[in-house]
Amino acid sequence: MKIPRFASFALPIALSLLSLAPAVSAQVRQPDGTVIPTRTSDDGPSVADILGRLGETNLTPPLTPFNAQANARPDPQTFRPGCRISFRVMARSAGHTSSFGWYNVVAGRTTPPPESERYTIVPEAGMSSPAASGGVGFTASLDIGSDRRYTGGEIGFFLRNHVQEYTYYTERRYQPTEVPGFFYALIYDSRVTPGGFYFAWEDIVRGNDNDFNDLIVLVDNLTCSGGGDACTVPGAMGACAQGSRQCRNAELTCVSTVTPVPEVCDGVDNDCNGTVDEGDSLCPPRQICDRGSCVDRCEVELGCLPGFTCTPRGSCIENNCLTVTCAAGSVCRNGTCRAQCEGVVCPYGQVCRQDRCVDRCAGLTCDRDQVCVDGVCQTRCPCRRCGASETCTTDGTCRALDCASVTCPQGSYCMGGRCMDSCAGAVCPGGGVCMGGRCFAPVVTDAGVRDAAVDTGVVVDSGVRDAGVRDVPTVFDSGPVTDTGGLVVAGGDTQGCGCRTGSSGGASGRGVWGLALVGALVAMRRRRR
User: Fold this and answer.
1) Are residues 122 and 178 in contact, defined by beta-carbon separation less than 8 angstroms?
2) Domains detected in the chain
């Protein structure tokens, strides 16, 4: 797994928090109270010796030497595999001949998987050539994405003692009941091998020495069961608070998926310092950053639309919010401080963050062999089996069969074989308008900027120059431009405000809506003048 790289200014804080963490985490104990694994071993190197020599380090201080008891976990019990996983035998005690393999996890199953559904990868160790027959140094790989035995969900692992004829599982519900509650497997998350987990075993039902070095196998390209879900990183600020649940020390932990970058005008705290869009050089000359977009400054002489005031900074603010100061994480609406995203319903496929509607997968970095689907990292298909009514697409996602051959215009999505408007039912932040599947800031300014936050190919101009800057964008994607003495109609999608929309087929009636809004704004402007 890739561990995000944080900016240097965040490192001192992280280290200070790290120093406060306990030196020893929760320990795993056998039913008789024994802390496992034991620190010494009578039949070879201990777990601490083996993993320490491999360069593994502790999650919590002290960083060295490796503490096998502090890092031991009985979980996770099941895993999601990547497309190809590999196996390597790291330790095997003399005299212990056991095999190791995997099986499909079946929800609701009450009995252990039969032998026909257990698939051996590491065989018993041969004495003549151990590395070639399951001994230390033995390696194997499995293309599980194309393996017909794999049913597409989570997998578990097992150890088979061929002398006693007992089988032990990572799922504890299947363990032998001779010693109730006894642990036969310990899990270690590797911080040397990405996505790697060590499985350390005891392979005797009674009389175990609890050193868990009977067999230690490293398996890579695994994800904890339940990993990939979106989460908020505790204590992180701005974009860095966006994270996903990933395996850390064999436990699900919220890990930031965003690295601090220099601030840009996009309504996001990009440098993760707690302030959004700060700085005086985010926009070109004669423009300011207003609600995540670079817009031409308003002029005090011309003012803003009714209910708004042009501030000395050059932005239009609601009159009721001029003297209101809101705490971090809240915004002023109609004179009242409200939580960001309160009452917001974003367009289809988007989520509200910091009072902005953004793609659910924006900034999310998934592990190898994973793809982001609706804000969750999932194993790519065909490594992950699609449902009976789905098909695997080239980008690694599963798509409904009735939408497989349907291509919807930008601003819409397919459901039930039909293209649906992404803006249907949307309530944009701050009273903005949803067009082409995106939320745009509400119409507030009047001088030198577009009067309508719509991208229908229709823009407004009064036929004069306001504050030295024409309202009409100077760049168009395509199509003729016709000046009608105060109304400019562009045949193509305009890019003057940095907006993008889909074709008109994505939302019927938008052009009529845009023209109506344009007419009202023109009439309002002429009345003021």
Assistant:
1) no
2) 69-224 (2.60.120.400), 297-339+443-528 (no CATH), 340-430 (no CATH)
